[in-house]
Specification:
The protein contains 20 helices and 9 strands. It is mainly α. The strands form 4 sheets. A 3-stranded antiparallel β-sheet has the order 4-9-8. Strands 1-3 form a two-stranded antiparallel sheet. It has a two-stranded antiparallel sheet with strand order 2-7.
């Protein structure tokens, strides 16, 4: 390695040896350390990619079994199979002894791997490759790794702080004894660390990897760092963490989102059609700021195709609460406002004229689904219908999931087909919504453009004015918060936001305690939508995850979250 490069890496390494430790994971890699650092192409590069691989993706993790998504622990959906652990979030089975510890375990494991790399970066020597024709590209790539890993460390700390609140702030490896004596760092200090890290690395990360060796996707960019910063600041400003409603925190969040909006075109980001957010080739979608791809499979389709479709298991079924949030194109009224009770669907089609995002997200009775020619049928979600109860695993909500499901996939025993699924970590539409929320909470008026030159209403209307959406614009200040929360639910449905949004807003009892579902009956040729309530357990302690009891037992300095 060039001496200047090598010395600069040593200097970088010195910046990181200044903090705390690993908690329950001390062996950052099962690879031999000498091999890892003496064989940088195969060792270090693989170690870095291992850290990336630990970023959560609902298309590959399957934490709750059978493809259950976090949406089914919110009011967006209900998981059809009662055997899934996802139901423990609201049936009383969630405890410190059964804590859904995946976020805790995975985050600390990744953070430890990052620390081991940063502390040993001086051991990397590329001199053996000096005469390789690809040597300069190799050096360029290895110079990026520390900044990418600092981005990832910030990301995993955000995963921890939004789930647990106060967590130990660890910036170097420790022995087990040291790790097991750590106490929790206040969330505001963890937020500050994350934001400072993202500010520090953003300017060194590339805008894209088009001109970087390998042109790889799914790696940290400047836009990803700043979009994560904007999200982190929004959470910090939200009621769960901003208990004193410090308005300046909302201003910081608005400014961070506006930076991305102002630079989006220059950095190559632009809004896409809603239907293009998923599909085999969508990892190149210019709206995506950070996306995690998967290898081609049809497991997501099998998990979410309706019962009655060969190998369909119903999976994550959208609720009537979600359907109620969609508005009509003609007047902006919601489904719930027009149809607060039962609906004679034979006489009136209540779905006609709904927001186009509804038809792209939800499969309703009568839809031809899936779209592949070998399986296409008219879906029957009513009682005794082909895809309805009392069939085992039939939808408990009256609907099936369409968003992210590739309806062209064949799941029959013979001639099955597969497709790629790309998990959206961050996209431009979220940034506009984050900006709108921050602006409204800072200025208190949805029409106030303030110093940033764009009002909360204008930011939301950018999304609603997309050619393939064409919804009535948001106007005025009355009821903005309620309308905004609906808009965010609709736009980001099944992207992993609702579970956390309701928590950071401290709206659990309002949204998660009584969830609306639909039951369809067909009698004497009359199809009727009957509304009912799925009552779920909610306790305010659910705003934060419990610290795993196993960690409390190992480390007496770790205190438990309130109520657990």
């Amino acid at each position: 390695m060039d001496k200047k490069i090598k010395y600069s890496l040593i200097a970088l390494a010195a910046l990181f040896v200044a903090g705390c430790a690993n908690l329950d994971y001390n062996e950052a890699s099962n690879r031999d350390e000498d091999w890892t650092y003496n064989s940088p192409i195969n060792g270090v590069k693989a170690l870095v990619y291992d850290v990336y691989a630990q970023m959560p993706s609902e298309f590959k993790d399957d934490i709750y079994g059978n493809g259950a998504m976090l949406a089914s622990a919110s009011d967006e959906a209900e998981f059809a199979l009662s055997i899934s652990p996802i139901h423990k979030y609201f049936n009383g089975g969630w405890t410190p002894s059964y804590p859904f510890s995946n976020t805790w375990d995975r985050s600390w494991r990744a953070i430890t791997q990052i620390h081991m790399y940063l502390e040993r970066i001086h051991k990397i020597d590329l001199s053996d490759y000096e005469y390789d024709p690809d040597y300069q590209n190799m050096v360029q790539q290895f110079e990026l790794f520390p900044y990418e890993l600092r981005f990832l460390r910030a990301y995993f700390y955000f995963e921890l702080v939004r789930a647990y609140g106060d967590v130990p702030l660890v910036t170097t490896t420790l022995t087990n004894a040291q790790a097991n004596s750590l106490s929790r760092t206040p969330a505001k200090d963890v937020f500050k660390f994350i934001v400072n890290e993202l500010d520090a690395v953003a300017e060194y990360l590339p805008v894209s990897y088009n001109d970087i060796p390998g042109q790889e996707i799914g790696r940290a960019t400047r836009g990803a760092a700043l979009a994560l910063k904007a999200r982190v600041l929004l959470y910090q400003a939200s009621p769960l963490f901003n208990t004193g409603n410090d308005k300046s925190l909302w201003k910081e969040a608005a400014a961070a989102s506006k930076t991305i909006i102002d630079n989006a075109s220059r950095w190559g980001y632009k809004l896409s059609e809603y239907a293009n957010l998923w599909g085999h080739e969508t990892f190149t979608n210019p709206e995506f700021i950070f996306v995690l791809g998967t290898q081609a499979s049809n497991s997501f389709e099998m998990n979410n195709y309706p019962v009655g479709v060969e190998n369909g298991a119903s999976g994550n079924c959208p609720t009537q609460s979600l359907v109620d949030a969609y508005e009509y194109v003609s007047d902006g009224k919601t489904f719930a406002q027009r149809h607060p009770g039962d609906v004679n669907v034979t006489v009136e089609d209540p779905y006609d004229g709904l927001d186009p995002r509804f038809g792209l997200t939800v499969v309703k009775n009568g839809d031809l689904w899936p779209a592949n020619t070998s399986q296409q049928i008219a879906i029957e979600t009513y009682q005794n219908g082909f895809n309805g109860s009392p069939k085992y695993g039939a939808t408990p909500t009256g609907y099936y999931l369409k968003k992210f499901v590739d309806g062209t996939c064949v799941t029959t025993v013979n001639n099955q087909t597969t497709t790629r699924h790309n998990w959206i970590v961050m996209r431009l539409a979220e940034v506009y919504l984050n900006y709108a929320e921050a602006m409204y909470n800072y200025y208190g008026n949805a029409d106030d453009k303030g110093e940033f030159g764009m009002s909360a209403n204008e930011a939301v209307n950018v999304l609603r004015n997309r050619p393939d959406i064409g919804m009535p614009e948001f106007q005025g200040n009355d009821g903005f918060e309620e309308r905004y929360m609906r808009e965010r639910m609709v736009e980001l449905a099944f992207e992993g936001h609702r579970f956390w949004d309701v928590r950071r807003w401290k709206k659990g009892p309002e949204f998660f305690k009584n969830v609306q579902v639909a039951d369809f009956t067909l009698s004497e040729g009359i199809l009727t939508l009957h509304r009912s309530t799925s009552s779920r357990q909610w306790d305010d302690k659910y705003y934060l995850y419990p610290i795993p009891q196993s960690e409390i037992q190992k480390n007496g300095s770790l205190t438990q979250n309130p109520g657990w």
